[in-house]
Amino acid sequence: MSKDIMTARIERNQLTHLLQSEDIEDVPFDELVRLFREEEGLSDYLPEGIYATDPRTGEKVIFHSTRANRPHDNKPVGTMADQNQGSCPICQGTTTGILDLKPLSEGFTFINKNLFPAFYPLEVEADIEAEIEAKNKTSKTRRKGTGNIFGFHFLQWTSSYHERDWHNIPLTDATLVMKRLAALEKKLLAEAPVYLGDLGKTGADQHDNPVYILITKNYGHLVGGSLSHGHQQIALSNVMPKRMGDNARFFEENGQTFSHYLLHINPTELIIKDYGPAVLLTPYFMRRPYDMILALKNSSPQFLHQLNESELEAVAQGWRDAIRAILDIMPSIGRELAYNVVTHNGPGAGIYFEFLPYTQETGGFELLGLTICQANPKEVARHTREVLSIL
Ligand SMILES: [Zn+2]
């Protein structure tokens, strides 16, 4: 990697032309919608605006043909012809309008619009598959088939420094980044349902929540991370992702949140680190080596913005440690760096985060729902504790 890339960053004055707001909380919701619709460049990469449901599992599929064209700078050098040769669009300031920007101890963190949105405030109702819906009405088995999907798709850039992310920024900065995620989440939850309700676009799943907040992180081209500059994805969707429904159903069936249950049932030997308000652990049902879960002990909050200061700091610590461990361990076991982080929020979750390093390929048995995990949880938990103790 060249020295230029190692020290690459975007300076605040290079982003002046993109700065639409320094605080997402100050942007009126209709203004937010307008800024999305008027963003130059997004119109070339809009999703189809429809989803289909696998009638066996309830998993939803969104169709988005233009997303295949997005650039990647995150592929291993020399393996792909279309790689971006290390030029980062974020460090070059060639990105979308910024909606939130806060200084860190060095540089800043900011939130903007995803140029390739899977969720978008479509003005026109997309055509749904009328034939499927008509056949569903006359079938003995009536399952939700297809429908319109809409929402908003944001990106949060952890730091203006290209090489900085959760693993190498101070804890106070990491906590601030988490707080900005919480601020965006709060804004969307408070105001989007009213906006969507006015358009008659609420509750595709007739759940209590008319909208769903998806917070994830993809790092590495193997798991969908197209840019190497550290970032999180935040989306608002009118359609409930399958796993969120799973959490809600777990709560209905068991009378407790999944995080509460997991903290009770998971063997003590599998605890990686206890931060007080939250615990990082290896789940006893680990599917791939080094899967981790960070669970909040307080099972009342359903969303990030409902967490108090010490809980948010514990979450930031957990993210930092889990990602540090992944970055250390994956190369040492001969794996290319690639991982996902998934946030579980909303009814039944109790707030927990899954850290999922791509330590093992998915085979046919796994696709049948029978996973062969090439490690055992006790050994992995012990090794992760050891790695974190010397980092
Ligand atoms: Zn960059």
Account of the 3D structure:
The chain has helices spanning 3-6, 29-38, 130-138, 171-198, 242-254, 258-265, 309-332, 364-367, 377-390, and strands at residues 50-53, 60-62, 98-103, 108-113, 146-148, 151-157, 212-219, 231-237, 271-274, 278-281, 292-296, 339-344, 352-357. The chain is α+β, with helices and mostly antiparallel strands and 391 residues long. It folds into two domains: 1-240, HIT-like (HIT family, subunit A), CATH 3.30.428.10; 241-391, HIT family, subunit A, CATH 3.30.428.10. The strands form two sheets. Strands 3-4-6-8-7-12-13-11-10-9 form a ten-stranded antiparallel β-sheet, with helices on both faces. The protein has a three-stranded antiparallel β-sheet with strand order 2-1-5, with no helix packed on it. A hairpin with a 4-residue loop joins β3 and β4. Residues 8, 88, 90-91, 162, 229 line the site of zinc ion.
List the helices and strands and how they pair.
Elements lengths: L2 H4 L22 H10 L11 E4 L6 E3 L35 E6 L4 E6 L16 H9 L7 E3 L2 E7 L13 H28 L13 E8 L11 E7 L4 H13 L3 H8 L5 E4 L3 E4 L10 E5 L12 H24 L6 E6 L7 E6 L6 H4 L9 H14 L1
Antiparallel strand pairs: 1-2, 1-5, 3-4, 4-6, 6-8, 7-8, 7-12, 9-10, 10-11, 11-13, 12-13
Bound molecules: zinc ion (ZN).
Zinc ion binds next to loops.
How much β-strand is present in the residues? Answer: 15-25%
CATH architecture of the largest domain: 2-Layer Sandwich
Helix content: 25-40%
Instruction: Describe the global form.
Output: globular
Which structural class do the helices and strands define? alpha+beta
Number of domains: 2
Integer-rounded radius of gyration:
21 Å
Oligomeric state, counting identical vs distinct chains = single chain
Under CATH, the topology of the largest domain can be stated as: HIT family, subunit A
Bound molecules: zinc ion
What is the arithmetic mean of pLDDT? 89
Which ranges are low-confidence, i.e. pLDDT below 50, for 5 or more consecutive residues? 77-85
**What is the distance, rounded to the nearest whole angstrom, between the alpha carbons of the first and last residues?**
23 Å
Order the strands across the largest sheet as they lie in space.
3-4-6-8-7-12-13-11-10-9
